[in-house]
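Hi team,

Filling in the usual template for the complex we talked about on Friday. All components are listed, including any nucleic acid strands or ligand strings, so the model treats them as one assembly.

SUBMITTER: L.P.
PURPOSE: interface mapping
COMPONENTS: two
RESIDUES: 457
SEQUENCES:
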Amino acid sequence: MQRIFEFLFRFRAFFLFLLLEAIAVWLIVSNNGTQGALFFNSSNRIAGNIFETRSSIREYFSLNQVNSDLANQNAALLNKLEDYERLFVNTDSLRPELMLIDSMTLANYEFLSAKVINNSVRRAQNILTLNKGKNAGIETGMGVFNEQGIVGRVKDVSDKFSTVISILHTESLVSSVLQSSNVFGTTRWDGVNPDEASLLYVPRHVTVTVGDTVVTSGYNSVYPEGLKIGVVKSVERGTEATFYDIKINLLTNFSSLSYVYLVKNKNLPEIDSLQQVSGVINEQ
Amino acid sequence: MNSNQLIKSSVSIILMMIVQVIFFKNLALFGVAFCFLYTGIILLLPIQVKPVFALVMAFLLGLILDIFYDSIGIHTAAFVLMAYLRFQWLRVVTPTGGYDADITPSTQNLSVSWFASYAFPLLFIHHLAFFYIESISLNIFGFILLKAFSSAILTLIALIIMQGLFYSKRRTL
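RESULT (copied from the run log):
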């Protein structure tokens, strides 16, 4: 017995090394899903406050760009509003009080805004931190986008901060559609270039041209239909016989993210429970 | 190690962690070369420090970094691995005549070329482990090798510059 203890004591560094590595591997594996433990990420209070201070210093250097982006977005929204107002005035049948009765016309999505306080684009799994959390109504699973295109999906939420799985993360699978031909596929990042992603599962019998726009399909319950993702960069006949190898240029400039919008699907619980009952496992 | 030195080493550890999280976190030269300055905390521990102490320290610091990097467990695993290998490696690269008692293996106490041959393999293994675990689900091993190699060079240069600026001879960290 004593010799066993002597043996253990002599190699204590090695055994401690094995123990600590085992803990680290356990942490990696058990937090590898899209839902992480709440404390060990940058949405906790200390990390969040440090990143917020850093971001509030840095944001002065990009104020011009942020302002012009917001102005552009406002102009686009004003145009849309104008269209809707004309619709209301011209058609009696679409009076606001009537529209409230019909569930088809009720708003399905709720929008919030937040600021990115921590961001990375050069890692293999990129995660953002936002400056709002539970107190501002942010929930796990909300879609995140900005005026350029989609950004990601909320992973963890604390009281004041939240973390977002960026599209530049290999677990981000986005159900997408080619705007010109209405063919569906799945967008997935390759882990190398932050401007580029792959469009998977597009069958070979359709024609795909370089320059086609790829948008969200709306089939998933995270993003609304028609948010921009990217533009087709190259189309090749893949090694797998049934699908194309399509590369797309992402439209969102991830390296200069500042303000983003969050979208919550009000019907999400209902869709989720329905899909669970019928055994459907959906991508994002 | 007296209390004065203890305070100095604690301050330098905290400073290195802050610099890493605030300045070097998003730095990537040419998109492939990352700077992991914090590896210097373990690399520059005095030679007499017990392996058990270094392993526990690497584990705790790795956890803190993982919180900021949102990469739970990955920094921890790579940093503990480096801390363990450092002790084996220190025996291999012993200069002729052995180490002086209780010194820091820094460029001032030994030499720049010795430090490079001591630090580079450890940095390379640490970075390789980090990038490999990070992108384990991807089939991009060549790119990982390139990232690990270029990051090891950048980190080594940063560590040598840091020691030239802030470290004086014969001080244990």
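MY TAKE: The interface with chain B takes residues 12-14, 16-17, 20-21, 23-29, 31, 36-37, 39-42, 44, 47, 50-51, 54, 119-125, 127, 129, 163, 170, 190-194 of chain A (CB under 8 Å). Helices of chain A lie at 2-10, 12-30, 45-58, 63-90, 96-101, 268-277.

Thanks, L.
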